Amino acid sequence: MATRRKKISSLPIGRFIGPPLTIVLFLVVGYLAMTGRLPFLNGASDQAATTEAGLLPGTEGGLQLTSSGDPAAKPIETLTVATFNIQVFGVKKAEDLEVMRYLALILRQFDVIAVQEIRSMERAPVDQLLELINSTGEQYKVILSERLGRTDSKEQYAYFWDSRRIQFVEGSSYLVNDSADFMHREPFVASFHALQAGVPGAKPFSFTMINVHTDPDETDQELNVLDDVFQSVRAYEFSEDDFILAGDLNVEIDKLGELGQIQSVESVNREQTNTAGSRSIDHLLIDRTATTEFRGAGVINYERDLKLPRELADRISDHRPVWAVFDSSEHAPQGVIAALPETVSR
Predict the structure, then answer these.
(1) pTM of the full structure
(2) Model pLDDT, residue 38
């Protein structure tokens, strides 16, 4: 009996083009992966890519994590300020490329970041970090303080900022004058403003930051000096009404001493800030009467928000970044701001 053969023309077209198309796609994906153009296949960025649509919980002013710092991904109506102790940052940490990639990912989430505990005697690790931050097309800049401290283990403060969204006020950075040596490291001050207001016709939000890292063995004395620092800086910057004291203060919110007793001034974060999740010692303090632009605050929890194992979280830093969201348009202060000292030298 004769058998009936199927006509070739009756076969689905996919059976002809499927195998070669699969080979082509495989080659294309392989090429993109090898050249680093697929972030989710590129080393440490694998886990970081899972955060692209991750919303940080905690406040109505939530922070949207992105795998890059594309300004289009950041709302024009707000800007985000952060403080981050990057724990003994120097040549050794800069050699850990996985940690450096995560530090860059974290820092590019924010418009302005006050950084503490840069221990390197060379500038190269800071420049390397800045290069990584900008490796996906960003235009961040950085300023560094002098190396500070009474011992051989000196530290520098830094401010990183996204120059496409933020303007650093030239000549505004200085170390607070501490001629009596009340503090182990003098606070580092700098002023910034948004390049564009979120509300048409409004003035862009401007603010002055005070970057601080207290000595854990001298917190009682230093916190009782920082209230004078805060008051003196805002007396000196008399044309400004928005001040953010940012840093690792080594004490909980209820242990801020005289700093915490300034009228209307408070630490805006309520989450644990050490990697172990047991303490809240990193702070962003604002005068809630003056800085009515404040929208919300929180931390980046490495294990929760970046889905990182604890071992990697500990390598990044023993501190979590603390952030706060502000309107990018200037608001008028409410009520009466506390009286200020008459003068301050810098």
Answers:
(1) 0.80
(2) 43
